[in-house]
Amino acid sequence: MTEIDSAEDENDEKSLLEKRVKALEVDLRQKKEIILAQHNKLEAFFDSSIDAVVQMDFDGYITGWNHQAEKVFGWSAEEILDQTIEQTIIPERYRDAHKKGMKRFLETGKTTVMNSLIEIHALHREGHEFPVELSLSVIDSADLQEFNAYIRDISERKHAETVIWNQANFDALTSLPNRNLFLQKLEHEIRSCDRSNLSLALLYIDLDRFKDVNDSLGHDLGDLLLIEISSRLKKTIREIDTVSRLSGDEFTVILGQINDQLSVQPVCQQILEALAEPYQLDNEKVFLTASIGVTFYPGDSKKIEVLQRNGDQAMYAAKGEGRNRYHFFTPELQQRALRKRKMIKDLREAMQQQQFEIYYQPVIDLQSGMINKAEALLRWHHPQSGLVSPSVFIPIAEESGLISEIGNWVFYTVTEQVNHWREQFEIDFQVSINTSPLQWIDEAAAMSEWFLHLQQAGISGQAIAIEITEGLLMDATDQITNRLLEFHDAEIQILIDDFGTGYSSLSYLKQFDIDYLKIDQSFVRNLDHDQNDLALCEAIIVMAHKLGIKVVAEGVETDTQDQILKDFACDYAQGYLYSRPVPVRNFETLLADMPVKDSSATKKNTA
Question: Strand 242-247 and strand 129-140: pairing?
């Protein structure tokens, strides 16, 4: 090979090498452009992320910080890059755990927070902590060793959750725990009692006649009253105890860690005294009392639902004993409650199976001795217990809400019967019907249907009289007053039953245009040997006549009582001297056998 040929070969190799170098440079430049484009795209992705993206190396120095991180933490990228995460965004209380976690990862490659979503608190540049949701990933390769943290501020979500939780667990008016949280705390206290072998006392507190106070004050002042009551309750108990508002005017107190049941008595007394102190609400001074029922875990029961029932029963026992007192649960109360529940069930069946019957007791015109009127008295023929006294089942019918249904049945039954008698015996006869205050308060619409029934059946309103209690007049709302006027418009007369045992005044008698007073039998019974009762009866009769009101004496049993009432010019009387209450067929026999006075003549003479 010549030197020329050798030189040409060298040039060819050099040219080929240059071409290869240029090709490599182009390839490297293209790869750099691709990497740069990918990097820019990744940065754009990080910057557009709704999460704060924080990148850091294995020494904890921050190497990446997107725009959302600036918004979330308050640091700009220029300020925070090359600072450690520990010094900037980790709260001091977490820093020791962070150091230990980093050390464990670098030594073992293991971590408990990697590739999982956790909730934790972060530190803002201004120094306050806030809740965040954190996800952490790691890149560990020959070219790169770093952590990527994806952080989301969840302050608003946590606030919303807190609001929802508070709404679900606290009473909006008083800020006391509600029924839901009360049950949770009761479960917690029961577990604590089990661990410590101690007891707890559950107090059920119900305000006495709160509805009357609330109605008279208006609901705004009623709310202020409940807030003040809540404040007083909290001041009477220990920090470890819990007071809750279950509903309306019903509160509970959980007294935990009790080792002596007698220690609960002074607490109950303190609560009663605190709640009985006068309340100054704006310009109104209000007086209120409460009734408390007390039951113990585990002594009375280990079941929450039974404890609740026990506390409720004991509270009603306190009310039954006169209010403004406390009552401990006893097994007797449980038996009484079981009997009451059974009677409510039997009462419902009684309506369906027609176990009720109306008895009638004659009302005698004392001057003529003739039957002028009658009182309708409800009787219940129980299939197992026999004849049940109204004094037993009427209060339970009122409590259970059955009184209106029973009262309506009585009204329709009596009106049909008295109309039949007026036609059969051709007399102007009247039957009085007892009513419960609850019928006037809760069932005004049903009473309106009574007037319509009389009108459609062609029955004179004068055939019916309605007996009410003195208490109804004391508690008379506009609704009750208007209803009384409607009865008078329908020519239905009104009697006040058991007059003298309540608290009526002359102003009520005048205001409500009462037709009859019925002197209670407790006064009549002692007429012949008690000068005080004698004077009272005479005074009632004279007063009533001065007001244009007629008088009926109840419970007449002796000829002496009959004569005294005649001497006092009492208008009417009823009692065992004349007849016991009897069924329809027996009463018809009395009407047929005894002289009957046509009251229309009296009305004409009176007119």
Answer: unpaired
Cα angle vertex 268, ends 262, 269, to 5°? 100
- In whole angstroms, how far apart are CA 193 and each of 63, 180, 182, 255, 543? 55, 20, 16, 11, 65
| Superfamily of the domain at 367-606 | EAL domain (3.20.20.450)
Region 59-64: mean pLDDT is 90
Q: Which CATH class is domain 171-329?
A: alpha beta
Cβ-contact 564, 523 below 8 angstroms: no
pLDDT at 34: 46
- The CATH class that applies to domain 47-158 reads alpha beta
What is residue 26's predicted lDDT score, i.e. its pLDDT? 60
**How far is residue 580's CA from residue 361's CA, in Å, rounded to a whole number?**
6
Give the tens place of pLDDT for each residue, 237-254: 999 999 999 999 999 999
Provide the residue type at 285 as one letter.
Answer: K
CB-CB contact of 252 with 244 (8 Å): yes
Nearest to residue 265, comparing CAs of 322, 325, 313?
325
Model pLDDT for residues 532-581, shown as the tens digit of each residue: 888 989 999 999 999 899 999 999 999 999 999 999 999 999 999 999 99
Distance CA(154)–CA(197), nearest Å, equals: 42
How far apart CA 502 and CA 474 sit, in angstroms, is: 10
- Listed residue (578, 547, 548) closest to 562, CA to CA: 578
Read off the pLDDT of residues 468-510 as tens digits, 9 standing for 90 and up. 988 788 767 777 888 888 898 899 999 998 887 655 556 677 7
Per-domain residue ranges for the chain? 47-158, 171-329, 367-606
What are the E-state strand segments in 334-415? Answer: 356-365, 371-382, 386-388
